[in-house]
Design a protein that fits this description.
single chain, 479 residues, alpha/beta, seven-stranded mixed beta sheet, four-stranded antiparallel beta sheet, 16 helices, 43% helix, 13% strand, binds pyridoxal-5'-phosphate
């Protein structure tokens, strides 16, 4: 047995590369990363994948080791530039963020230490870090000191947690589903509707509250609908508002909805996945008034705090419901139960073992301070106003003035179908690839969007977008 163990040990020790080997591989990886960042301005924001190759699939996982140069060349050829480049400032589609460098270093350390961030007993420092970040966000949102929350993988999971809290707080049972009512706006992010389904609530009645001309939920109509539903012996229990919709950046009337929710005892969930961090700016602070009235709230650091993907947050005004909905006990966990006053993430979220997610957020905030984040968000708000003005100078029709940093616009040609024209224009911009924009449908019309959120997006990027639009409108009109 000993000889067998020795033989196995020899092979399994390959999992721990020696210092020299670590250095050699690390150097190659760092060089590769540095090269990427140093050339980020010239790397396209979007590149269509060529149909002619099967990409990574031609290089299956094998028994034998590969070398780092080969592996990097696979990444270069098949991964790091095809499709969308979310690290580019030219990414102006969907809701971008960028991915700040110090987060990568935070992840590096988190993965080397591999601290257990789920339970205080196992990783007191890691848990404290997470809870401290939660308190920081709860603070600028305007939640009380009793607030709690969880670092999630993204906004979708955070929305799911909020919906689960609402379900459990209202104590609806399966027999009540068909009488229970949820109020949404037609502009709600689809992850909320997905969360409703996953939470087992798809048989509930879902009412879409009408929108005003700026795509915001009409609070008066919400109240009218709740009253009517109550009269009809239905059970209104949840309203979801958006603090910055994905489509247009619209902010629902958070204060009025909060008032109505409280009056009729509905759970109030706000999706601020995109808009939440704008609360750090003076303008955003004003515009997001009422956000603190919510019971639960989603805010995505991988959007408006510019972290790399994999960071969402669920905040709750009180830990009670989060705890009631997620807490479990098992015999093999008995050593981990401690009266510390510090909340363990595992007790208030679906995850047990989790990535040491706090470090990717804590490290950049500690190294940079909050100031540059605030300035970057202010810059984005102003760039959106700038683009809104300038794109009209090019002859585009625009949607409502931007409430945050999303602008909607479309070109209406003198002759021909406007939807088809804008579709062609979008394709032309994507083919050019220096900037990336996405589209949506508003009031039945094919509409272009510019979502100005990424931290690497600056004045020159928006000027580039304007010139790409101008040039391609000219070409399409000449056809
Ligand atoms: C992006 C987004 C979500 C979903 O968050 P993910 O992090 O992509 O899971 C939810 N709501 C809004 C408003 C968003 O913009």
């Amino acid at each position: 047995m000993r000889t067998q163990l020795e033989a196995l040990e020899k092979i399994s020790r390959q999992l721990e590369p020696v210092a020299g080997k670590r250095e050699a591989v690390r150097k190659k990886v760092i060089d590769y990363a540095e090269n990427f960042i140093n050339h980020i301005e010239s790397i396209k924001a979007f590149e269509l994948k060529s149909e002619s190759n099967s990409g990574l699939l031609s290089f299956p996982i094998a028994e034998d080791p590969g070398d780092i140069e080969n592996v990097i060349s696979l990444l270069k050829n098949y991964v790091d530039h095809t499709g969308l480049n979310p690290a580019s400032g030219g990414h102006l589609g969907y809701i971008p963020g960028g991915g700040i460098y110090y987060s990568a270093l935070g992840d590096y350390l988190a993965d080397v230490f591999n601290r257990y961030a789920g339970v205080y007993f196992a990783g007191p420092g890691a848990v404290q870090m997470e809870n401290m970040l939660i308190q920081w966000m709860a603070g600028f949102i305007g939640y009380p000191a009793t607030a709690a929350g969880n670092l999630t993988s993204g906004g979708s999971i955070a929305n799911l947690m909020g919906v689960v809290c609402a379900r459990d707080a209202s104590q609806i049972k399966a027999r009540d589903f068909e009488r229970s009512v949820i109020y949404l706006s037609a502009q709600v992010h689809h992850s909320v509707e997905k969360a409703i389904r996953i939470a087992g609530l798809k048989e509930c009645i879902i009412r879409y509250v009408p929108l005003d001309e700026r795509y915001r939920m009409k609070a008066d109509d919400l109240e009218r609908m709740i009253v009517l539903d109550k009269t009809n012996r239905l059970l209104p229990f949840l309203v979801v508002a958006s603090a910055g919709t994905t489509d247009t950046g619209a902010i629902d009337p958070l204060d009025e909805i909060g008032y109505t929710a409280k009056k009729h005892e509905l759970w109030y969930h706000i999706d601020a996945a995109y808009g939440g961090f704008f609360k750090l700016t003076a303008e955003g602070h004003e515009k997001l008034k009422g956000i603190e009235q919510s019971d639960t709230l989603v805010i995505d650091p991988h959007k408006s705090l510019f972290l790399p993907y994999g960071s969402g947050v669920l905040l709750a005004k009180s830990s009670n419901q989060l705890n009631a909905s997620h807490h479990y006990f098992a015999n093999y966990m008995q050593d981990a139960v401690q009266a510390t006053g510090e909340i363990s993430p595992a007790d208030i979220s679906p995850e047990l073992t989790k990535h040491f997610r706090g470090l990717r957020m804590w490290l950049p905030l500690k190294l940079l301070g909050v100031k540059p984040f605030r300035a970057c968000l202010e810059e984005k708000l102003l760039l959106a106003k700038y683009f809104y003005e300038e794109v009209q100078q090019l002859g585009f029709e625009v949607g409502p003035a931007p409430q945050l940093s999303v602008v909607t616009y479309r070109y209406v040609p003198k002759t021909g179908d406007a939807d088809a024209f804008n579709k062609q224009l979008l394709e032309a911009v994507q083919k050019d690839g220096r900037v990336f924009i996405s589209s949506t449908v508003l009031d039945g019309k094919f509409t272009l969007r510019a979502a100005i959120v990424a931290f690497r997006t600056h004045l020159s990027t928006i000027d580039l977008l304007l010139s790409v639009l101008k040039e391609n409108v000219r070409l399409l009109n000449a056809n």
